[in-house]
Structure formats: C-alpha cells, structure tokens
Amino acid sequence: MAKSLRILHVFPSFELGGSQRRMTTYLNASNAPHNHLIYAMDNCYDAAELSDHFRTARIPPGLIPKNNMLGAVRGCRRALRQIKPDLLITYNWGSIEWAMANRWPRRCPTVHIQDGFGEEEQETEKPSRQFFRKQIYSRCKRVIVPSNQLAAIAKNSWNVSEKRLSYVPNGIDTDLFDRAPDLSLMSKFGLVPSGSIIGTIARLTPEKNIGRLIEAFSQIENKHPKARLVIVGDGIGMAPLKMLAERICVQNRVIFTGTINEPQKIVPAFDVFALSSDTEQMPISVLEAMAAGKPIASTDVGDTKTMVSEANRPFIDGREAGELATSLDILLSDPALARSLGAANKALVRQHYSLDVMVETYDRLFVEAAN
Question: Do the beta carbons of residue 285 and residue 199 sit within 8 Å?
Fold first, then answer.
C-alpha cells in the first residue's frame, strides 16, 4: 500500500478559479491515501464547497503579516514547524513567502505549481519577481505547469532544469459535459430554447477582459437579433461590466448568472463558447466547452490555439474586440460549421485531456517529490 503523505497546499486564494477547480477535481478523483491540508493566504475558501477531501490548515490569525515579506517568511517558517508536512505545494506568485520559508532551512520538499500571471504581469514579468522566481523555483523539488508557454518561461526565465520541470496538461471528466443542459436552470435566467447563446465562464477580474467580449457582442447583436451573451462568473468587475452592457448592448441581451458551481448544467446550452482574456495558459473552461461539443472563439492567448481542433484554430485570433466579433459572427451565421468544429473539439478533448491521466500524473509526481 502506498505511503500516506501529509500534504500542505498553499494558495494565494482558494476562490472559484481555474487552479482551485483543478485541484478540487483532483482531490475528488484521486484514490491516493494522502492527507491534504489547504491554506488560503487571503482567507477566501469559496472553492471548498467543491470538495470535502481536504481539511483547512489551522494557522493563527496574524501569524503571517501582509505587506511585510520578511515577517511573512518568518511566520511561514513557524507554521511549517507546527504543521510538519511531508510535502509543501505552492501556487503562483502569491505563495512565494512559503517557498522562501521552506528553503532556509528546508523542512520538507517543495513542489511549485504555476498557472499563469495576474493583470500586472500580463505583458511581461516584473524584474523583481523574476529575480525571486529564479532564486526560489529553480531549487524546488518539482515545478509543474499546465502549458507549453509556461514551460518555456520556467526554463528560460527562471532557470528551472528539465529534470525538475513537469508539463501536466489540465484534464477534465469529459463525460460530465456530454449531456443536455439543465432546463430549470435555463428557465431561471430566462434562457428559452429559441435563439443562439454565446457563453463564457470566467472570474470577473481585469485580466479576463469580459468588457472586450461585451464590446464584440455589441458589434454583431443587430445582425443576430435572437442571440444572447451569457456570462457565468462573479468578481470585482460585476458592477462595471453590467453598466457597460446596459450602455452599449440591447437591453436584456447580456445575461449575468453569477457563479454556477456545476458548469455542466449550462455549458451544453451554449452555441459558441467565447474567451476574451488578456492572459491565460490552459483554460479549463475551454476544455469543458470542447467536451460539450462547442466551437471556441477566443483571443490568441496561452496554449488556447493549440488546445482546440485544427479546424477551429482560425477562430482563435488577435486581441481586439473586432477580431473576436468577426469569429462570433461567422460561427453564429453558419450553424453547420459550428457543429462540425464542436464535434472535432469533442473528439480531441477526449483523446488528449482526460481526467484519469492528469490524476495519475499528479499522484506520481507528489510521491516522487516527497521521497
């Protein structure tokens, strides 16, 4: 029987984001006998409702001060002494204090998982952060990334060696999205069967640039009078995005649902899935839409273009609202083309992005890192 590990996961926030959804999916699917503890630096545990296969790490309030790097590192050291994990897993820049604290002295092996960058680094890394990443991540037992773009950054910018670097594509339960939409949920938001739906799922934060998608929709909505834009998600941008939609779009044509914890209930209702982000790596929402047999219209960010079927790649284009509008217009105007692209995406995601492979890979890497 495999050894049971005590694994501490440190997230900047355990909000309902991509990395959090991936980890809760892993926890629900893994049969490994490990004990998982999760700590959120901002004390947000919204994603906790997605899994009951972990416990929240108990760390005294105030032990890790904000805006005080040295004090935070000292607090993390004390927490590591108290928790005594067999493996520390840090996520993105917001947990850098923990990786630093576990280097001098090292109390257990560290695995760092990098999912991307925030709004402040969507164009290029901050030099000070690049310096710390190079010093800290290059010495972690393992660095895991979900995209080829991030793998190149880890090697070339942070000096992470090949033997310490693992590219692990995100995986999903494809069968979960091969279903009809939940009609009661659709009715709740006034989404009657007639008409086309452009849908997206995203945290409503600046780097997701949902405003770009609303602008793109405003450019084509008169040509497609029965089409609606459905925005699934919540965040600090909700109020200004609603104001933008009211100002530039026809009334009641843009629908904000808020967070839906089971996206498989609504994604199958979309005719086109849209992504308008300024920065992404390997968005899980795109994989879920592909599993539901949907065509993708997106800005050209991260690995998105290489994730979709070859025939869908022309619709992953540029960074401007006009380019996104053109892609949406073509797909809404040609339902047969949209269905064909969706079928190709569905076949591809089943072949290359299975949940089982991702879970087996994480299980293996965690055990190897702890030994």
Answer: no
